[in-house]
Amino acid sequence: MDFYYHPASPYCRSVMLVAKALKLNLNMQYIDLMKDEQLRPTFAALNPFHCVPTLVDNDLTLWESRAILVYLVDKYGRTNSRLYPKDAQARALINQRLFFDHGTLSTRLEDYYYPLYFEGATPGGEKLEKLEEALGFLEGFLITNPYVAGPNMTLADYSLVATVSTLEAVQYDLSKYPAIAAWYEGCKATIADYQEINESGMQQYRAYFESGLHPVA
Ligand SMILES: N[C@@H](CCC(=O)N[C@@H](CS)C(=O)NCC(=O)O)C(=O)O
Hints:
Belongs to the GST superfamily. Theta family. Keywords: Transferase. The protein is an alpha+beta fold. It contains 8 helices and 4 strands, in the order E-H-E-H-E-E-H-H-H-H-H-H. It has helices spanning 10-21, 41-46, 65-76, 88-118, 126-144, 155-169, 178-190, 194-211; strands at 2-5, 27-30, 54-57, 60-63. Strand 3 and strand 4 (60-63) form a beta hairpin. Helix 1 runs parallel beside helix 3 (65-76), helix 4 runs parallel beside helix 6 and helix 6 runs parallel beside helix 8. The termini are far apart. The structure holds glutathione. Glutathione is lined by residues 9, 11, 33, 38, 50-53, 63-65, 102.
């Protein structure tokens, strides 16, 4: 399987963490987003959305990280893998959290922090309130459950841990959300190859955000 990625991208990192958990070998294809390599005609022909992560498995080309996570477990996971069990109710909750990550948390995080770092936007305001509302929802999930979708670590944790690590990249103080902070530390300690994949990628993402603090005129 060819996997087009950039190590700083949280969406690529969640897939890399799950591939590691499933003991899959990905044929890593580095796309240098700093050089706009995703816009090259060969890559754009593969993925007209020109984004990473992109997975190519025989005649299937797939982008959108959460779709890739689900595909990897469905195709290569053990039958009834705990990461994404077959039970409709358990799966529904995992899907809900994955869509929450995609449509709410990661979107609100980017909506607030990109303008702050790259456009000199004023800190605070409504976008921060929306982000903190989303963090409040996540805190609520984790007050009632050890993992974001219940008693076991699932795909939703892998997706959300990559998003939450971006808060560390931008030095957001997570102590206001003790359940998220405790879960995040637990994920760091238990997910295979967390340091190599998510920690080092998060540090690269941090450097990228910090480069935006002093934009070249
Ligand atoms: N919702 C997508 C987001 C993917 C995304 O935004 N990727 C960024 C890197 S973090 C990218 O490839 N940007 C380059 C571009 O869109 O041209 C996912 O979860 O896979």
